[in-house]
Amino acid sequence: MKHLLSVTDLDAAAANGLLDTADRLRQALLGREVRKLPTLRGRTVITMFYEDSTRTRVSFEIAGKWMSADTVNVSAKGSSVSKGESLRDTSLTLSAMGADCVIVRHPASGAAHRLAAWADRDATMTGTHTSIVNAGDGTHEHPTQALLDAATLRDRLGSIAGRRIGIVGDVLHSRVARSNVFLLATLGAEVVLIAPPTLLPVGVEQWPCRVSPELDAELPGLDAVMMLRVQAERMHGAFFPSAREYAVRYGLSDQRAALLPEHAVVLHPGPMVRGMEIAPSVADSPRAAILAQVRNGVHVRMAVLYHLLAGAPE
Q1: pTM, rounded to two decimals
Q2: Is position 142 annotated in a ligand binding site?
Q3: pLDDT digits (tens, 9 = 90+) for 222-237
Q4: Is 220 one of the annotated binding-site residues?
Q5: Does the annotation list 213 as a binding residue?
Q6: Is 56 annotated as a binding residue?
């Protein structure tokens, strides 16, 4: 594996291999007073974020440090990007400084793929290779989020194959939804997108999932429900009448959570808008695995770095 750009680059064996590696790394760290593994000693990992982030950026940094890599953070606001430097020149600069892996989040869909193409071309000339990890590109994909969600579902449900997973809310602007649909389908799950028609992307009928506008009707048949963040910063128009109406139709209230089967799991990629997307009591309930997603994010991202930089088998 040279890069991780999209979940569509992974077949079921590769995806399960990453999840299995994450499990082994988690076990390797259990009971350690100092959570350090020497696996990536001497490697340099750079996070380059053009959009704000808490969970993804910090978990990648922790993942690198727990594996003894040298980790460096670059943000658009504090770099030459704010002076007008192009993405191409920034990538060349980081590669010239010896970056073994660049983790990028960018508002433009396809930015990570562009960086990977440049990295491959530069490698043929310089003989040194820089791996690219897509940490979210526009409304396109967020592959490591889908992997950590899959890891959480495996922990809670035992398996993903044959399970029915509902993804609820702002699918139109959600790279998390797109990555989850394709990865969960690859792993054998049945995925149901539940959203108002105004928050569904063009071409969603070509995705490997079913679409429904009725949340209440779907909840009793779900093994897990993932509530999505309403991405107001990407909305340039009225996609629903009001926050209150959205909460009434698509928010996960206590009454709606009671419709779920006893074993069902509640997920949210965060940050949550409590009271609109999900009731605080549901977010903090035992069936919610939201903090487990965060914890799994570190181990999954350790696994990704391991497969990219330590020469793990395909």
Answers
A1: 0.94
A2: yes
A3: 999 999 998 766 555 5
A4: no
A5: no
A6: yes
